[in-house]
Specification:
Radius of gyration: 19 Å
Distance between the termini: 57 Å
Strand order of the largest sheet: 1-2-3-6-7-8-9-4-5
Largest sheet: 9 strands, antiparallel
Oligomer: single chain
Mean pLDDT: 86
Shape: globular
Strand content: over 45%
Length: 179
Amino acid sequence: MRIAGSHAQQDDSKHLSRRATVRCTFSDGKVVQTQYSRPRGKGRKIFIGAVPYGEVWRAGDKEAPTFSTDTDLTVGGQDVPAGSYTLFTIPGAFKWTLIISKTAEPTAPYAQGKDLLRTDMRTSKTPTPIENFTIAYDPKDGSCTLRLSWENTQAWVDIAEKKLCWPTTTPLTYQCPDQ
């Protein structure tokens, strides 16, 4: 059994990427979900090396992450209607750009004409090195932060469910459901 377990371990190490699914569930049960590949660093220099600064990157391995939501959102303050999309980024030393593409097919090549939006992402160094590329949703006060981490870098942007509000009587105020 020890040999079989050791052999299985070696076989697993040959795979550069594993698939993962992460999601954020809002207070009303609506969901935003991302499916993506998790390439491993394997001792490589990732940013500036395997992933150049200033160029569009599909944020994973051979397929762009899918980004699906059953509710209207704001991502970095910009509107994203409910639907399915793909994610791309433009990494940089001090700033990243998140691109949400209207193309829902993860194997499709990037096409700027298909951009739904581009928004800045904040960045920082990670406290410890990250071997496997990771996408996560961090819940925060009824919203989420989308965070991408790899090597010694993390980039993030805020995501919130877009609430429909309507004006009320004088004095002018707005009423929004679930607030």
